[in-house]
Amino acid sequence: MSSNERSGTYRLGNRTVKRLGYGAMQLAGPGVFGPPRDRDTARAVLREAVASGVDHIDTSDFYGPHVTNQLIREALHPYRDELVIVTKVGARRGADASWIPALSAEELTQAVHDNLRNLSLEILEVVNLRITGRVHGPAEGSIAAPLSALAELQRKGLVRHIGLSNVTPAQIAEGRRICEIVCVQNHYNLAQRADDALMDELARDGTAYVPFFPLGGFTPLQSSILSDVARSLGASTMQVALAWLLRRSPNVLLIPGTSSLAHLRENLAAAALDLPPEAITALDGIGAGASAA
To answer: Is 63 marked active-site?
Structure first.
């Protein structure tokens, strides 16, 4: 059994995937803009991820833009039957590398076709609708118009399943009145735990929860408690953070990203890391304040 198989499995749409996947965002250039410094290494990371048992990859055509999807196609097409590629729409990139909301029906249609073309697919397995909220999280407001436009593309056979990203519980409830929601992708990690109650609710419903920035994103996790636990277990802080997330709830699907083969191997090994009860108690305390809030 590979270490990644020890992560367990969970349902994503009508597929069952291993809970430890791979996020392709970091394969693009600095700031998720432009090409990677080493295109061969980027493709090698993707191939090794799949060879190591990863069966779901998170991406978007606005990473680069177009860069990560083109790399996925170059490295992995024709795709293995068991591989699920999850993409997202709802933004575009400015010439200055800015992130610009793109939620009109026309923009969403273009985004779906861009993803199909650059991934060389006839249908997108899962598309997450990314909602623009506050700088550091979601904000309330109706998502009916863009989600209805995406649901129409689903009815046309271009999208198989729909998820939501950067959303509130009220927006999820609104979304479910429009179409089935198979996953929710929000900011969550050891230190960012405002979604604790939401995660548990989605678990009861059988809906996957996909934390983005599981390792802190552009500001890597830093905690003396995390460092102490990692040292006591002979593991890296990132492995401990991922192992904690896998234990947090059975509906959690992880998509840690990296452009390094060494870091990929390190991340995948986290599935085999056992956290003793005292370590879990200590780690739970890191985000207690955020969870209570």
So the answer is: yes
